[in-house]
Every structure is written in structure tokens, then in C-alpha cells.
Design a protein that fits this description.
66% helix; two-stranded antiparallel ribbon; 5% strand; mainly alpha
Amino acid sequence: MMAVHESSITARDWTLNRPELDTSPMEVIGALKRASGLLARLLEPLYATAAIAEPEHDVLVVLRHRKGPVIARHVAEELGVSQAWVSRMLRKLEERGYVRREANANDRRAAIISMTDSGRSVVDELFPERLRIEAEALAGLGDERATVVAGLERLVASLKAYEG
């Protein structure tokens, strides 16, 4: 018997109370939110004792292997988040000595971001364990993994197209 997920119940409630609404987006968004929440819970123990929080780690991971100058906009695009969010993370990381921001000769509004040795060290320490946790959590996908990735990439493309 297939499990009934909370988003299905909520969609059914909305359909009963507001039948004119198309609740079908709730299937995809509900599953995405549940997956995101579960992943965050699985990673909580790793970051509970780490020097940085998960969002800060995400920023450092992007910076870790970038060649050449990096600006906040590039990081935001890579992570699919706002520049304001990235700026907040960079400020925290800079205060703790994990990144450096330098004036950009080509654009005074966009500082050049570089990772310090401390930033590199913290990423290199955490990332292998994060990958291990994620690999174990995704092992149940088996042969369907490529299909899931393709579906998620289509979702990202759809959301980007909607964003404009």
C-alpha cells in the first residue's frame, strides 16, 4: 500500500474547500520540501559540531575549486540563491577569516572573493563526510538515480524560466 503524504492530504483539503484551485503543483513542491527537510535533518549532526553552518559550507564549496576572480553574483547563480543571501554568508565567513574580499578594479560594486587557507581547510575537512552521508542517503535510489537527477534538472530549468 502506498503511503499518503501530508502534501496529498493538504491538496485534498484544498480541493474540497476550493475546488476551483489546481493543487497539482503541491505534489512536486511538497515532495521537494520534504526531501529538503529530510536532507537537512540528516546533515544536522555533521554541522552541529562544525566550525561553520551548512549554508556557509555551501558557499565555501563553490569557492573551493573556482579558477580566477569570483564575485558574489557568480556564487549566487551557482547556488540558485539571491545575491543578498550570499553577501550575508560572505560577511560571516570573512569575519571568521574563511574568505577575503578585495576591491574589484573592473567593478567597484562587486568585490573579488577568495578563500583563505582556513576556509580551504574547513571545506576539506567537512566535505568528505558530507559526501559519505549523502551517498548513503541516496543509495536507495539505485538505478533510478539518473532519472531523479534528470527530473530535478528539468525542475531547475522550469523554475529558472519562470523567474525570467
